[in-house]
UniProtKB/TrEMBL annotation:
The protein's name in its UniProt record: Oxidoreductase
Gfo/Idh/MocA-like oxidoreductase N-terminal domain sequence ranges: 9-130
Keyword Secreted in annotation: no
Entry GO MF terms: nucleotide binding; oxidoreductase activity
Organism in which the protein naturally occurs: Eisenbergiella tayi
Domain GFO/IDH/MocA-like oxidoreductase, residue spans: 140-272
Keywords on record: Oxidoreductase
InterPro entries per the UniProt record, alphabetical: Gfo/Idh/MocA-like_OxRdtase_N (IPR000683), Gfo/Idh/MocA_oxidrdct_glycsds (IPR050463), GFO_IDH_MocA-like_dom (IPR055170), NAD(P)-bd_dom_sf (IPR036291)
The keyword Oxidoreductase appears for this protein: yes
Length: 367
């Protein structure tokens, strides 16, 4: 059932690349939303984008600052490349505009902390674009952990990736992406398990990154290979509060179908979550719960949810949840304080890989 409020929210789109397409397709369906403005650094790109979607009267600007200076907006979708996420989000919050920020949150932990400071000062809703949380199978993972069936969680293995799935465009250069597979799909994998176990604070990280495939024309388009300078594989051993260990790996390309299923191990049981062929925000098949029952070792299959609960799709649901929070004065569907920990782990993996040793994660005061 669609929710419609009397108040119509004026939206701006910052960045009109491919991810903005999903935002606009969903927002067009919502009667309490008006797509009022858009901004893109490439001349003519925003105009062509909105024309393609049959949206007339959308005011287009060459940058987000001029758009926000001249338009009265309630909310913006930040759909730019990673290295501008922090700037665009902070500028919007300082203008008193609500923000839905696409993943990854940004590039560094410091940027994430700066974003949260601006959020707290603004009093506006800031949510992060982690739509897999709204998948019913993903929700089931958290329900199982919260039920206590696994007991105390002490070890998590997670990750995934693609045998061949290197993107192009702004994803593969440090000047625009900042980070590669680690930020693109690694942030999703981290959120899946960290959200399930209540987002414990990360303490230390021993990380590794490599790029053996992206710069190699044998595995990548020669033009893209020549400009590729981010990670296409990353792995880490992360210690979390509560005496939990997280074993993580992610890939855009590798010589194997999967680096392993996701496993959550507890003192009373364990959960196996099958990997997907291409990390897509859901699970790769029925999950299995391992328990001892009456002295016997048993395995219980958790049937997959068929998606009937999310007829509009999880991307629509994440935007709808953001709008509902604005309309009702509610909380952000995906709170920034949680994704700060996600970003801190990513940042620490990069730092640890560069130093060749374990690093400690320390957080600044963001009150």
């Amino acid at each position: 059932m669609k929710k419609v409020y009397d108040r119509k929210l004026r939206f701006g789109i910052i960045g009109t690349g491919w991810i903005a397409e999903s935002h606009v397709e969903c927002l067009k369906e919502m009667e309490d939303v008006e797509i009022a403005a858009g901004a893109d650094l490439i001349p003519g790109k925003a105009e062509a984008f909105f024309k393609r979607y049959g949206l007339e009267g959308v005011h287009c600007y060459p940058d987000h600052k001029s758009m926000m200076e001249q338009e009265k907006l309630d909310a913006v979708c930040v759909c730019t490349y990673n290295t501008t996420h922090a700037e665009c989000t902070i500028d919007a919050l300082e203008k008193g505009i609500h923000v839905i920020l696409e993943k990854p949150m940004c590039v560094t932990q410091k940027e994430a902390e700066d974003i949260i400071r601006a959020e707290k000062k603004s009093g506006r809703v800031l949510t992060l674009g982690f739509q897999p949380r709204l998948d019913e199978n993903m929700k089931m993972i958290k329900k199982i952990v919260d039920s206590g069936e696994l007991g105390k969680i002490y070890y998590i293995q997670t990750g995934g990736g693609r045998r061949r799935g290197i993107p192009n465009s702004t994803f593969i250069e440090k000047s625009t992406a900042g980070i590669g597979a680690l930020g693109d799909i690694g942030c999703y994998s981290l959120d899946m398990v960290l959200n399930a176990v209540g987002y414990p604070k990360p303490l230390t990280v021993s990380g590794y990154t490599s790029s053996y495939f992206g710069p190699n024309p044998k595995y990548n388009n020669p033009k893209d290979a020549a400009r590729f300078d981010v990670d296409d594989f990353a792995a880490a051993f992360v210690r979390l509060e509560g005496d939990i260990v997280l074993d993580f790996r992610i890939a855009w390309a590798m010589h194997i179908d999967t680096p392993g299923d996701t496993i959550i191990m507890g003192t009373e049981g364990a959960l196996r979550i099958p990997s997907t062929e291409c990390w897509n925000g859901s699970v790769g098949g029925p999950m299995k719960l391992y328990k001892d029952v009456a002295g016997a070792q048993v395995e219980m299959e958790i049937p997959l949810c068929d998606g009937e609960y999310n007829s509009h799709g999880v991307f629509y649901s994440k935007l709808r949840a953001f709008i509902d929070a604005i309309q009702t004065g509610g909380r952000a569907p995906v709170p920034s304080e949680q994704i700060l920990y996600n970003q801190a782990i990513i940042d620490a993996i990069v730092r640890s890989a560069a130093l060749g040793r374990e690093v400690e994660i320390q957080f600044s005061d963001i009150s």
